[in-house]
Amino acid sequence: MTKVAILAGGLGTRLKEETIIKPKPMVEIGGRPILWHIMKAYSHYGFKDFVVALGYKGEMVKQYFLNYYNLNNDITIHLSGNRVDVHDGFTKEDWDITLVDTGADSQTGGRIKRLRKYLGNETFLATYGDGVSNVNIAELLKFHRAHGKLATVTAVRPPSRFGEIVMDGTKVEAFTEKPQVGTGAINGGFFALEPKVLDYIEGDLTHFELEPLRNLAKDGQLMAFLHKGYWKCMDTLRDNELLNKEWNEGRAGWKVW
Q1: How far apart are CA 113 and CA 198, in angstroms?
Q2: Tens of pLDDT along 232-242?
Q3: Of 38, 50, 58, 59, which Cα lies nearest the Cα of 119?
Q4: Average pLDDT over residues 113-120
Q5: Residue ranges per structural domain of the chain
Q6: Which is nearest to 238 in space by CA: 10, 60, 15?
Q7: Which CATH architecture best describes the domain 3-248?
C-alpha cells in the first residue's frame, strides 16, 4: 500500500495565536484539525497508510489519535469497572497511522529523511500539514509513475510569496524559494517521491524546498503535476478564519469526500 508522509512538526510562528498552545496541524477547521482534513482527502483516493512526522508539541497529535473515537463519539464511562463504552455515531476511519518523533528542530527535509525506515522501498506520497486542496491524488501518482523520474511536485498558481517553479512543459527546469517577484507556478506541497529522493537530503537541518528540490531539478529528476483547482495554505490566523468560513458555509473547495 502506498504510504503518505505528512510533515506535522513545524512551529507555525505566523499562526502564533493558535500555535502557542497546539501544533499547527492541530489547528481546527470546522471543529476538526487541518491534519484530519488532509488525511480525509488522501483517504478519499484510497491512500490510508499515513506516516506523520512530529516535532513541536507532537504529543498532542498522539493524544488526538489515541483518543480518536472517544473524542468523536458519545461515551459512557464506568468508573467502578474502569471501562468505557463508545456509542458509534461518527464514521469509522480505516486508517493506519504511524506517528514519528522527528525532532524539535528538524527542518522539512530532515523530517522526511527521518521517516525512511517507515516508508519502505516503494514510491510514497508526501505533503505538509497545513495545506488543503482538491488535487486528484490518484492522478498525481499515475502521472508520477508514467514519467519515471524520482520526484513529482504539484504546481499551483496562488500569490507569489511562495517559491516559484520554472517549467518547460511538465519538466521542472529550476526551483526557487520565495522569489522577490514571481508570477508563475509554485510548490503546492503534494508530492510523489521515490526512495532515492532521500539521498538528496543531507540531514536534520536540510530544507526540502531548497537544495533537495533544486538539485533534483538540476539533475532532470523533478517533474510538475499541474493543478488548476482549489488550493490554500493556512499560514496565518486570517487564513484559518477564511477556511473556517468556507467550511461553515458549505463551500469548502478541498472537501472531495
Answers
A1: 6
A2: 999 999 999 99
A3: 50
A4: 97
A5: 3-248
A6: 15
A7: Alpha-Beta Complex (3.90)
Give dist(CA 131, CA 15) in Å, integer.
Answer: 13
Exposure letters 208-226 (e unless 16+ CB within 10 A, then b):
bbbbbbbebbeeebbbbbb
| Cβ neighbours of residue 146 closer than 8 Å, sequence gap 6 or more | none
Beta bridge partners, 253, equal none
Report d(CA 54, CA 215) in Å as an integer: 26
Using one digit for the tens of pLDDT, what is the confidence trace for 34-74? 999 999 999 999 999 999 999 999 999 999 999 998 888 89
**Residue 180 has what pLDDT?**
44
Cell reading at 225? 503535476
Contacts of 144 (CB under 8 A, 6+ apart): 123, 152, 192, 223, 225
Give the count of alpha carbons within 13 A of 227, CB side only: 29
What pLDDT score was predicted for residue 36? 98
Considering only CA atoms, give the Rg of the chain. Answer: 18
CA separation for the pair 216, 150 (Å, rounded): 8
Identify the band that residue 18 occupies on the pLDDT scale cut at 50, 70 and 90: confident
Query: How far apart are the C-alpha atoms of 63 and 12, rounded to whole Å?
Result: 19
Q: How far is CA 204 from CA 32, 56, 107, 117, 244, in A?
A: 30, 14, 6, 15, 33
The candidate with the shortest Cα–Cα distance to 132, out of 151, 116, 156, is 156
- Taking the C-alpha atoms of residue 155 and residue 182, their distance in angstroms, rounded to an integer, is 14
